[in-house]
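cron nightly-structures :: item 1 of 1
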Amino acid sequence: MSQTSLQADEIAAFLEQNPQFFLEHEYLLSHLKLPHPRSDKVISLSERQTMHLRKQNQQLEKQVAQFLHNARENELISRALMNWACDLLGFKDGPESVCEFMCQRLKKQYGLQEVQLRLWWPDHPFEAATGKISAQHWVQKLNSPYTGPTTDLEAATWFEQPMASMAVIPLYTRDTNQCVGALALGSDIAKRFTYNIGTDFLVAMGQIFMAMLARFYAENA
């Protein structure tokens, strides 16, 4: 370590250990000149501190704004999930139309371009395609719902039109916790489903979907 940097370290340590220094030498607050962080000008120590506090406030304001945005987004998602669940409670037809009904209502509540279902549940009474074995294996290996782009994913071929992003929700039986299907949500907005979004609502969506199917499955087993 050079002599200059050592002296700087000693000065910093001294100021940390003697917080009363600037109270005893208050004139330094206005007499000390520091380089401006974004120009060739020099400013006083107090001005530099003011700039630092202003920057911190701006960062805090951005964080608060992001928290509020996330809260509003979660409220809208939660409300849509509740409305969808209420739609399902009003369903009165049979198993031959329940899957299409749930998918269409889900598409409407969340403003999605497509919702596709694949079921490989043994001996189920529902109108639903099974999908290729390779896609089934991919879904079964998911530890949580997939969210992200559709590029090079076989599950993306389930949609009738190209999608910019999608979510794939594994569907599990409640009694055996066996993966028996998948629900695919498609959007033409690339940022709708990204890698870093939370999946708690998607998991809940899958659980509600399977709870509805389980009622008809038990009746027709």
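cron nightly-structures :: done
The chain has a mean pLDDT of 86.
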